[in-house]
Amino acid sequence: xxxxxxxxxxxxxxxxxxxxxxxxxxxxxxxxxxxxxxxxxxxxxxxxxxxxxxxxxxxxxxxxxxxxxxxxxxxxxxxxxxxxxxxxxxxxxxxxxxxxxxxxxxxxxxxxxxxxxxxxxxxxxxxxxxxxxxxxxxx
Length: 139
What we know:
Elements: H1 3-9, H2 14-23, H3 27-40, H4 53-62, H5 64-78, H6 82-87, H7 97-106, H8 113-136
Helix pairs in contact: 1-2, 3-8, 4-8
């Protein structure tokens, strides 16, 4: 699948798709890892991207509005809210709702800023990879 076809199919997430694909080194490299990331998670270090916390935090900061937009839509589809959705992430099992809420209120001064920003970068990568996998599942 060409990047333009992928972004045209998911116009609401086109910016985030381009950023995730770029983080993996381009569409060809992204296609090599998308199924594994969708299946096992971005935290596995697949494809040489989304490995180091500082890199993930920078990715989150660069793509914050697109990630929040995707989170909001996902939470709405599930009938919940962003804080509850994020609190349910496996990689944040030791972080409570108050920590997540304070992340949005306090930003970088939040005690859990790096952990949550890292998790949100992984969330973005995993969701984009799932979209790609689902689009190509029966090809």
